[in-house]
Amino acid sequence: MYYHDKRLQYPVTVSEPDPAFARALQQAIGGVEGEIRVCMQYFFQAWGNRAPTTKYRDMLLHTATEEIGHIEMLATAVALNLEKAPSHLQEEGVKDSIVGAVMGGENPRHQIEGVIHKNLLSAGMAAMPMDSDGVPFNMSHIYASGNVAADMYCNVAAESTGRVLAVRLFNMAHDEGMKKMLHYMIARDTMHQQQWLAVIEELGAETGNLPIPNSFPQSQEDNENNYNFYATAADGSVPEGRWTNGPSIDGRGEFTVFQNKPLGEEPVLGAARPESGAQAAQIGEAPQTLDSNR
Amino acid sequence: MYYHDKRLQYPVTVSEPDPAFARALQQAIGGVEGEIRVCMQYFFQAWGNRAPTTKYRDMLLHTATEEIGHIEMLATAVALNLEKAPSHLQEEGVKDSIVGAVMGGENPRHQIEGVIHKNLLSAGMAAMPMDSDGVPFNMSHIYASGNVAADMYCNVAAESTGRVLAVRLFNMAHDEGMKKMLHYMIARDTMHQQQWLAVIEELGAETGNLPIPNSFPQSQEDNENNYNFYATAADGSVPEGRWTNGPSIDGRGEFTVFQNKPLGEEPVLGAARPESGAQAAQIGEAPQTLDSNR
Amino acid sequence: MYYHDKRLQYPVTVSEPDPAFARALQQAIGGVEGEIRVCMQYFFQAWGNRAPTTKYRDMLLHTATEEIGHIEMLATAVALNLEKAPSHLQEEGVKDSIVGAVMGGENPRHQIEGVIHKNLLSAGMAAMPMDSDGVPFNMSHIYASGNVAADMYCNVAAESTGRVLAVRLFNMAHDEGMKKMLHYMIARDTMHQQQWLAVIEELGAETGNLPIPNSFPQSQEDNENNYNFYATAADGSVPEGRWTNGPSIDGRGEFTVFQNKPLGEEPVLGAARPESGAQAAQIGEAPQTLDSNR
Amino acid sequence: MYYHDKRLQYPVTVSEPDPAFARALQQAIGGVEGEIRVCMQYFFQAWGNRAPTTKYRDMLLHTATEEIGHIEMLATAVALNLEKAPSHLQEEGVKDSIVGAVMGGENPRHQIEGVIHKNLLSAGMAAMPMDSDGVPFNMSHIYASGNVAADMYCNVAAESTGRVLAVRLFNMAHDEGMKKMLHYMIARDTMHQQQWLAVIEELGAETGNLPIPNSFPQSQEDNENNYNFYATAADGSVPEGRWTNGPSIDGRGEFTVFQNKPLGEEPVLGAARPESGAQAAQIGEAPQTLDSNR
Amino acid sequence: MYYHDKRLQYPVTVSEPDPAFARALQQAIGGVEGEIRVCMQYFFQAWGNRAPTTKYRDMLLHTATEEIGHIEMLATAVALNLEKAPSHLQEEGVKDSIVGAVMGGENPRHQIEGVIHKNLLSAGMAAMPMDSDGVPFNMSHIYASGNVAADMYCNVAAESTGRVLAVRLFNMAHDEGMKKMLHYMIARDTMHQQQWLAVIEELGAETGNLPIPNSFPQSQEDNENNYNFYATAADGSVPEGRWTNGPSIDGRGEFTVFQNKPLGEEPVLGAARPESGAQAAQIGEAPQTLDSNR
Amino acid sequence: MYYHDKRLQYPVTVSEPDPAFARALQQAIGGVEGEIRVCMQYFFQAWGNRAPTTKYRDMLLHTATEEIGHIEMLATAVALNLEKAPSHLQEEGVKDSIVGAVMGGENPRHQIEGVIHKNLLSAGMAAMPMDSDGVPFNMSHIYASGNVAADMYCNVAAESTGRVLAVRLFNMAHDEGMKKMLHYMIARDTMHQQQWLAVIEELGAETGNLPIPNSFPQSQEDNENNYNFYATAADGSVPEGRWTNGPSIDGRGEFTVFQNKPLGEEPVLGAARPESGAQAAQIGEAPQTLDSNR
């Protein structure tokens, strides 16, 4: 179960509100590489964790809980960027702000509306659980496979794309408060990349974990096709690299190259079945007519 | 551009059609860990690849093209499992099959319908680009971030969850043809896990790539919060592990532990603005009435 | 069954077409608080209504039918705002309009495209069943629970957020025709808020309907935890209000405060099962190797 | 920011695992009336709350935080129902369980697969953020309008449909542990219905809050159409009720009945524009031909 | 605007309720080939119709209005199939029905739950706007392009897949009332296929309408690649047919065959830009380190 | 299975990059009328094709394979429009480009961000599988019904809306390279419209294929309601046209007009069942109270 503190994890201030930047920040809230995703991903991985110990469940709960605070920071940042926000976050003098103009029916409406529609119309100048194009977050992006190593790579992937996004937002930001908030979040993403890779190392690193799942007897997979790069260029060219020769990353094989070609035959499904709703020609019959039916 | 061969990548045969297994196979077609995902992910990573050379674009095209053939194999397998399919894939004797009964209005309808509804009703006994619960694949799962290391971890994640799924399907299968098809696909997933990790190794391994993106000056991130594990338990307990002490995975720091606490203040957004559609109490006004308006 | 009249429910005119406002209006068509939602929600509540009388089914049909006309008005308003529309709604002189410029390849393209892409590209200057960010309406927002009181609160919620949106659009509008249309729709939302609350009153108001569903024997719920506010602040602070003391709204209890703490234990799911696709470490085994398999 | 305790909010035990019931419980996790929805809804309402005081922001945080613990309880319940779970939640003797049969390739596979596919295939016998049909939760269901009264009715609606669902699950449950867990959750839903209505009462009840938003001058809405029930039956019949006569719920008007008829005209959009991608007949031109183009 | 009659378009009776058939019927309500789709598609095509006359707008309104009644019939059929419904649709004797067992906690629960979960849990034994797998209808399926000929082909497509579905449901049905309802709906689909093709004929048939849009000067398209079939087989084989030789369907060209090959070059996007969040290797730089930053 | 050539199907060049046009092109990639849709639609139709011969499966594979190359061309065009791209596609001088300004934190940020957010933030200046409003493509748009004639009309519809879109993009384009690429794609759409209609002609044209499916005995449909136009106007007016009289398009009937009226009765579902989660009033009982329960 959970507790809260109404103070923020880290200071969030905005000197010069920027509605367009608010929209960009939405990507870090409800984008597929955003904070709702990692928060919920770590929670579901924790809650479904099956292992001889509860160690990883426990550790995941620590970080999932941390991530709620990140969503909170970003939601606060979006709200502040949608208004004229003076020091101490108290509102004053909004009349002359650019967003005030939008809500009050004044002039520079057109270019703003394209940027922040739904945050104004639907949420009244607040953050929403959606990305920078207004697409709501879809929970199918919560990867929790029941395999801890697969999950850790999913987490590294999430924190890598997450830090890439945070860096882009940092480069785009012009407000000092926003840059400071993001320099903190970038740091946390650095740690979280490390953290999930540390689990993989603890579990035996690449040689101990690969191929994932490592509980399947590898002798039962096709041993002629598990360490060869498939070249599919029509002209037979091959992109040479670490993946075309030398020992495999797990140390269990040698990389080779296979010029791809069909190993199977053309599939033949045969005629459609009567009463299956196909056309008569698919069944091999003449069309039904009003006459033929009588 | 692209060419096709109407023969299959690898043989796909079904001796004993099993509609329930057909539905399970759908997860490998249109599930988030399925083949449409990796196919399209590698294509979009290739088409958007920016680098001094076209080497990685090229290599990605090889494997993306290979994956189309995997979707094709699985779609064929679904179709075959939805019917009574004799040898050489030619249809005969379907009248007495279990699916024939469904389409023809005969008896064991109830338990089957729960399993394979949409494949029959909407596709006429064929595969669809959806998962095992009938949820259509959503292209937001195509991760292509513009950062090659982040993308490679996304690919390892995809092939790891993909091989986990293939192993589960293998364990669930009872038809020899299906087991053989899956033992091939499991092998290809083994190779693809290796392949993307080989790219990371070629690019400098963990020390050379982390933190991702490695083009951002790390001095600009918060250097007090980039290698410390945040402990968020209310009782102050800490899940000790590789992530709480010792050198970081990238070799640039030392893991430590931070008992989490708020570093910011309670955010205060202040009163809502007039004309913003809020309640009068939020604005600090009395409610508008019919009288007050006149 | 249904009939139509090709005339509009209420006049819809636009003197000065405004493509950005067209996009904003889309929120009232296909937003989650828009008219497609209430229309379909009332229809499905009506069609599935189970009660000793058909009275509520009947009443819901009246209002659902009314709402079709609201979608129609808004769709017309969007179309008119996407063109240069003279009096009597007949088209003339479009050559010099701002949208004409977009479709004809002339100058002020950039700022417009950001606002109204899909309405032009996909619909040819017409309304679409999507929100102001171009996200298509998803029918999961049709709440029809089979419980008439729950449904009525869903309807009050829908008409409340709907009227909030209509007011925001009214404040944003500058065209007299649009203001007039919206002042009508705001009025209908007023009535519909009243109407659903009138049903609740007729059914016994809060004391007669709560807790919903009121057909479940309340003695079977946990009577130590049904009228106490859970305080979850780590510092033990409590937000005092109507909900922390005094009689409950349904008159069946007294509000109290509970400082939240765990009442259960740490859950232990135990080791993963062999053949479940987990990592060997989760199962408590050594990893499978090529050697061990042979 | 947030803290966690690894113990559960309330005991969750399962004596007789039931995979079908696990799937039903998914509706309470990721259904539109489930716990992810209320948790995230209260968080976003809190984080975007604009008011003269932070009182409601604060209170919303308390309950949002409580709801995380409810998702956790349900996720644990799903995991336990997917296995043979002896006392103290420790796993043993799974070999002979019905789910063990599924994962191990044994017999009663067919009827089970229809019920719990994705929980096994994709999550390895764990909960997922989806509903009972496997549809992932979509964050567009987080209603946070920026209007506190509208939000409170959204919350009452959510807790009403939520308690209806919990009652149905309680009636469907046969395991004592599950019944106990649900009798607790039903009680919390009772309180939460009360709690949001208490806010409405504190803010002035129906007469003080309606119509929502109450900050819009009601004199500016169409005062001939804001308290009349629109009858749309072709035969002119009217469903009499509390909504057709007597004082309105807000005390500002009298209910009347209006036999609906068009108040506007047939809209005429006129011919399509050249270069708009319409058919020639829509533009009033002859079709373009290869000849005419030369 | 619109009127309703509370009687159904056509009789809907169910002698022997069948919950599995109810679920199948959902495909005809909220499936992509279902009635919500055609209803809303015709409405949006009507409301956005631009043409010299309102004739097609008018005609579309007639049929869109008819389709509301079809959704209503199907929703009623679903509700009736979810219960024990005696003659005259009045409920009695539900205690011993199969669905009664589900809701009341009795025995044959397992196999039913897999079939009808959400209709019971979420809607209380009623229809929902979703397909037979419980996936909610998504309004992106409303095709209304602004080109009347394109729209008519979209409509033919919708009514063709719709009639295919209705035929499959007819073949699956065993209740006489359901067969009668479906034999009516199949007939209406027959008419609607005719109706949209009649529009195309009235507008000039294939030679008068093709290529769509026929308002684009065909001389401006690539006249070497507009009537040739692209053969993409790696072995150079060609699937001969009506499309490989002879006059084109629009009478403006001759079909030929082109052995596909690249007409362009390998695209080279070049190095990534500094500050774009790419890896250093993509930019052509050395990785940033803690040292290099200082 | 499949092969690739790293060269493009047709030249793609951009002299003057235009980020807004890049966003518009996204509609042709991931819009419902875009290239991912037709590509995947033809593949799934091919893979599931049931017929006495593999002729149509084969032909569909040719064109599906061609379409991959179209997605590739468009993805390349989007990437080029997001940067300053000199001749031969090699990058130089990006510093002064408009997009460079965006990524580098310079001035004209606001108007650009509204247009291309996610392509920059999430993909690093590359194409994504989404439409021009950033909505990801949803695979439910892959229509493959198992009926070849229905599928062909779906394909004609897809290529008709596709060519309408391509024409709009052509009219909007100002770069010669983009116009040339589009004039090629428009030509291919012309051919593909022809191609699918050629299949219909080969199968017997309208008289031989209608009504679809033509394998259902037409005598079993309601022969009084299969060739009559339903007029639903409340005033009894009829939109006369080819569809109101004369022979039907399939030559099997005569068009007539039916003034629509209810042929069924008001449906009566009766009281809700106890324990179904309905309100007591729906069941016909008094509400449960704390007292009554004890």
Automatic annotation (TrEMBL), chains A, B, C, D, E, F:
Binds 2 manganese ions per subunit. The keyword Calcium applies. Its cofactor is Mn(2+); Ca(2+). Keywords: Calcium, Manganese, Metal-binding. It comes from the Bacteria. The keyword Metal-binding applies. Mn(2+) binds at E35, E67, H70, E159, H192. Ca(2+) binds at D58. One of its GO terms (molecular function) is metal ion binding. Residues 263-294 are annotated as: Disordered. InterPro entries: Ferritin-like, Ferritin-like_SF, Mn_catalase, Mn_catalase_dom. Belongs to the manganese catalase family. This is Mn-containing catalase. It comes from Sphingomonas aerophila.
